[in-house]
Specification:
Elements lengths: L5 E5 L8 H10 L10 E3 L5 E3 L17 E5 L10 H18 L6 E3 L3 H5 L15 H15 L3
Parallel strand pairs: 1-4, 1-5, 2-4
Antiparallel strand pairs: 2-3
Helix pairs in contact: 2-4
Length: 149
């Protein structure tokens, strides 16, 4: 899969969880063949693999040709930890450089209908406490620096 963007999500439940637990839920509850996300970012900043990066995701209806990253916790009621924020930025910069994407190619699930022509959603992913414009600005700065290395 050649991704046309990156979509940030929240697991929507307070606290921390694992890619394995999300996978189990997606397979047993949703009857999917695998976890819907490609990566999961834990509270401690650890990045766990989900669905293989070269396969189509199951995370944003109408825009599953993007890389789906789930940040654990509930972004509506708890902010990302400093470790999560750093892990998201480092991971997304690497993915952008690998796939020739820009900061503007990164959005939250809630923005996907407008930015990626995805199916409308009532989800607030990656959460109301996440300022996606600030995330994109931080990504743009890091991407510009990474181009000089």
């Amino acid at each position: 899969m050649k991704p046309r963007g990156i979509v940030l999500h929240t697991v929507g439940v307070k606290g921390d969880t694992t890619a394995a637990a999300i996978r189990k839920y997606h397979v047993e509850h949703n009857k999917w063949r695998d976890i819907g996300y490609h990566l999961v970012v834990r509270k401690n900043g650890e990045v766990e693999f989900g669905r293989a990066l070269w396969t189509t995701g199951a995370h944003t209806e109408g825009a599953n040709d993007t890389i789906g990253i789930c940040i654990t916790g509930d972004g509506d009621s708890e902010a990302w930890t400093a470790a999560q924020r750093e892990a998201v930025l480092v991971t997304v910069v690497g993915l952008c450089n690998t796939h020739k994407l820009t900061a503007e190619d990164v959005c939250g699930h809630r923005e996907a209908p407008a930015r990626l022509r995805a199916k409308p959603t009532t989800k607030t992913c990656p959460g109301k406490l996440v300022d996606l414009n600030e995330v994109r600005a931080a990504l743009a700065t890091r991407l510009a620096v990474s181009q000089w290395r």
